[in-house]
Amino acid sequence: MNYNESVIRGNIMFTIKRIRDLREDADIKQIALAEYLSITQATYSDYENGKINIPVEALIKIAAYHNISLDCLVGITDVKKPYPK
Predict the structure, then answer these.
(1) Residue 40: inside a domain
(2) Fewer CB within 10 Å: C terminus or N terminus of the chain?
(3) What CATH number does residue 64 fall under?
(4) CA 73, CA 79: separation in Å to the nearest integer?
């Protein structure tokens, strides 16, 4: 694995942890977010376990659901406030 692959993999693992932490902190079940995303609970579970890549569209919807910026969701910043529309 080269440096770029390592950085990308690290960001993916951070994102996976963040979406799980946000969901658990809000005391939300996987099924609720799966329904919001129009996917199965099994697919959402696969997102959180890093078994499949999370589509950008799903990341955007997850950020909107939690009212945070996409940058925060993927670990670019820890500032949770979303950008103004």
Answers:
(1) yes
(2) C
(3) 1.10.260.40
(4) 10
